[in-house]
Amino acid sequence: MKDRPNMTTSVAFLIGMIALSPACGHRGAAAEHRKNKVGHIAVKIWKVGPRTFHRTLRLDGSLQPSKRVLIGPSIPGRITSITKREGDRVKQGEVLVRVSPKEIYVQTIPLRVQIAAAQAQATAASTVIAKIKDPYERTKRLYKEGVISKLKLDRVEIQYATAVAKKNAAMSTLTQLRKGLKRAYSKLSDTVLRAPFDGYVIRRLVDEGDTARAFPPTIVLVLAQIDPLYATAEVPSRYLSTLHKGMKVRIQVDPLPEKTIGGTIEAIRPDVDPITRTAQIRVLLPNQGRTMLPGMTAQISVNLAPEQALAVRRSDLASKPVGHDASVFVAVQGKARLRRVQLGRTMDAKWVEITKGIQQGDLLVIGDNRDLTDGAAITTTLVEQP
């Protein structure tokens, strides 16, 4: 007897073929999910036009004291007193440092000796003048009367003129020496150093008993005013025309992320660094609670004036940008056409400016266009705003 086919095997084979048929059909449908009955790919399009952007310039900055001064005596001498230490608060006019006045008094000794000598010369000349004045006047009278000769008059006149000249010279020297002594004594005020403004001591560099030098000058204390503070940042030169003095900004200090402070641009440096192509701005920042300190880092946000630009979303680019070059698809008479475009400024996190390749009124294909090819037939749905 001939062997009959195994019925069980045949039935299993038919069941397997039936099970595979829907799966194959599903894969084919996935590949053609965007195609309609006539094979066109359904896409969304947007009519390209200028878009208004409200841009924010964000800068990395650091905090600086609004005032900073080095406190040190202008005269040499031993430092006898320093009233403050690092971290101490100071009030304007408060005494900070005292220097021994001994050095000034020592400097005045030669002046006082010279003054005494000049005074003695002036006194001696005055004595001579007083002694010969009457004989001189009598000699002049007798000469006019013709009683004595011109030779006798000249002798007395020379003595008198010499005495007067000595007195005048001594008095002139005395005047100059007294002015010098006055200037020397005026330096006594330099032995007491006071705070020029309210602030804090941020450095103390010497101790009591140290000797202060005149050159190079000895710095005793470094004072800083921290209310208000300055926030400084470097701005790319292309943004300088959009900034101006008095512009309001927002500042977030990194150690205080929960707090945003308002500030004002106080100054824009009028020079651009030739290497970094940036210029420094300085923002005045109130610090009444003194919670912020010099040296802290901060983020400065500046709202720029609204501006319009022809731009597209980065997600609508058909290729990844290479430098400033990319591509997009536009709808032209029922077909997708690939266009090379040139990118300009980054307008925000989503949008980038297009400077070349498309123009206002073009129909840009938006959304997922990975399965599009140049010249592919498409059916379009126009959206108002992508």
Description:
By secondary structure, the protein is α+β, with helices and mostly antiparallel strands. It is elongated and about 150 Å long. It contains 3 helices and 20 strands. It folds into 4 domains: 41-54 and 307-383, conserved putative lor/sdh protein from methanococcus maripaludis s2 fold; 75-99 and 191-221, RNA polymerase II/Efflux pump adaptor protein, barrel-sandwich hybrid domain (OB fold (Dihydrolipoamide Acetyltransferase, E2P)); 103-188; 225-303, Efflux pump adaptor protein, beta barrel domain (Elongation Factor Tu (Ef-tu), domain 3, Beta Barrel), CATH 2.40.30.170. The strands form 4 sheets. A 6-stranded antiparallel β-barrel has the order 3-10-13-12-11-14. Strands 2-15-18-17-16 form a 5-stranded antiparallel sheet, with no helix packed on it. A 4-stranded antiparallel sheet has the order 7-6-4-9. The chain has helices spanning 7-31, 102-145, 150-186; strands at residues 41-47, 50-53, 56-71, 77-82, 89-90, 95-99, 192-194, 199-204, 211-212, 221-236, 248-253, 260-268, 278-285, 297-303, 307-313, 325-332, 335-346, 351-356, 363-366, 378-383. It is 27% helix and 36% strand. Helix 2 (102-145) packs antiparallel against helix 3 (150-186).
Helix and strand string, N-terminal first?
A: HEEEEEEHHEEEEEEEEEEEEEE
The order of strands across the largest sheet is 3-10-13-12-11-14
Average of the residue pLDDT scores: 86
Whole-number count of domains: 4
* Structure summary, number of beta strands: 20
Q: CATH topology of the largest domain, what is it called?
A: conserved putative lor/sdh protein from methanococcus maripaludis s2 fold
Structural class designation? alpha+beta
